[in-house]
Amino acid sequence: MPEAITPDEHRARILARIEPLPARSTPLLDALGLVCVEDVRAAVSLPRFDNSGMDGYAVRRAEVAGADDRAPVTLPVAGEIGAGQAGLQQLPVGAAAKIMTGAPVPAGADAVVPYEWTDRGAERVVITRAPDDGQHIRGAGEDLTAGELVVAAGTVLGPRHLGLLASVGVAQVQVRPRPRVVVVSTGSELRAPGEDLAPDSIYDGNSFLLAAAALRAGARVDRVGIVADSAQEFLEVLRDRLAEADLVVTSGGVSQGDFDIVKAALRPEGVWFGPVAMQPGKPQGFGMLTGAGGEVPVVTLPGNPVSSYVSFHVFVLPALRRRMGLAPEVPPTLRARLATGLTSPAGKQQYLRGRYDAAAGRVTPVGGAGSHLIGGLARSDCLLVLPPGTTALEAGAEVEITLLDGAQW
Ligand code: AMP
Ligand code: MG
User: Fold this and answer.
1) In sequence order, which residues have a C-beta less than 8 Å from that of residue 220 and are 6 or more positions away?
2) Ligand 1 close to Cβ of residue 370 (< 6 A)
3) Do 389 and 295 share a structural domain?
4) How many CB atoms within 10 Å of residue 138?
5) What is the pLDDT of residues 195-209, one digit of tens each?
């Protein structure tokens, strides 16, 4: 049995082999959550032109100065200007123009009188209150001017960035793409949800657990599903998919059992297998496989569902984030106080499931330590990270936790 490496060492070895994906031009909506690699400048100013902030009448302020209820000013209405229907471009002297919100203010006008201060007349309008200079006019370029930087290289594009890019007419952006992740569950005992179970079979939870975690991380997923415990079949499935993959994640078949076929299949291909000093998630594997498109990282996770998921969080999530150019790569940790005391085995980094109460800064362990307890995993929202030296902690002790599913980013 080789000597165990630490989780940090294993992750460092994985990250050392992983490069960010080259950026490509991507339609806006597909770029949500991705890293923009270019400085994008506005091709147009915002607002593009002086436009009305209200439905009302464009006027020359001097011509309505002093208007009030006792001395209203009446002006002929020279025309009507709707958004996208800018008929009237010049306001005749001594007249008002009906104008709608967002419509271009005609030359000569220097204020808009809202409907509320008028009789809403069609031929002639009675104005009972005078606007201030420029009132209800949204000036061209007051938000940003053409040529200005709207998104800086390195920005993770959120809904507001995409809205702004669209607003300045940008249809495509250069972003690091979603990594294509192939997810394979191995095990002859596995059946897909919805299928009939034999007395010795169980449902494949892992391919869904891992595929969903990869999707949540921002990846595209090819969920292969179940491959039986046959090294040959497993290799064939992998070879088929490698050309289309930026990362492969497998579950099961990596420990000391007679049917641990992932190990049997990939060890001859140069993939490293060995113990990592953590619980759950001790048996791990990592290597590079060569497909038609080049080398593809393969992370082989243990089959117990909690082991698989914890390993994903600790090793695969940082790898995907590096692929995407996202920082931080490693899920951040925070400190919380234990709601109850606990014990932990010495010599291994322990990842217990917990529920975090942010307001109280408190964490409550959920379920037991068993790596098959997916019910407890689903009820948890964080992992407690207990270092190898920790064997017992009392209620109130401070522990390190990491929030699950990227909730903190
Ligand atoms: P293995 O790592 O293949 O030895 O599997 C360890 C344990 O996890 C066994 O009890 C398996 O039945 C279980 N297991 C493996 N893969 C899955 C899966 N995809 N879904 C649920 N349980 C699994
Ligand atoms: Mg198995």
Assistant:
1) 178, 179, 180, 181
2) no
3) no
4) 19
5) 999 999 999 999 999
319 in the same domain as 347: no
What are the residue ranges in the chain where pLDDT is below 70? 1, 406-409
- Sign (positive or negative) of CA dihedral 288, 290, 292, 293: positive
Asked if residue 2 belongs to a domain, the reply is no
| Separation of alpha carbons 352 and 309, rounded Å | 12
Residues 105 and 166 in one domain: no
Phi, psi (deg, nearest 5) at residue 252: 90, 165
| Claim to verify: residue 226 and residue 290 sit in the same structural domain | yes
Q: Going by CA atoms, what residue is nearest to atom 3 of ligand 1?
A: 252
Query: Does 307 share its domain with 165?
Result: no
User: Is 33 a pocket residue for ligand 1 (Cβ < 6 Å)?
Assistant: no
Atom 8 (ligand 1) nearest CA? 304
Residue with CA nearest ligand 1 atom 17: 303
User: Within a domain: residue 409?
Assistant: no
Residues 306 and 386 in one domain: no
Q: Does 171 lie in the same domain as 38?
A: yes
Same domain flag for 320 and 347: no
Residue nearest to atom 5 of ligand 1 (CA): 303
Q: What is the largest CA-CA distance in the chain?
A: 98
Domain of 170 in residue numbering reads as 24-45+157-175
pLDDT of residue 47: 98
Ligand 1, pocket-test mutation among 202, 208, 299, most atoms within 8 A of CB: 202
In angstroms, what is the span from residue 252 Cα to ligand 1's centroid? 5
**Gap between the Cα atoms of 317 and 339, Å rounded:** 28
pLDDT (0 to 100) of residue 1: 64
Global pTM reads 0.93
What is the CATH number for 361?
Answer: 2.40.340.10
Q: Is 305 in the pocket of ligand 1 (CB under 6 A)?
A: yes
- What's the total number of domains in the chain? 4
- State the amino acid at position 151 in one-letter form: V
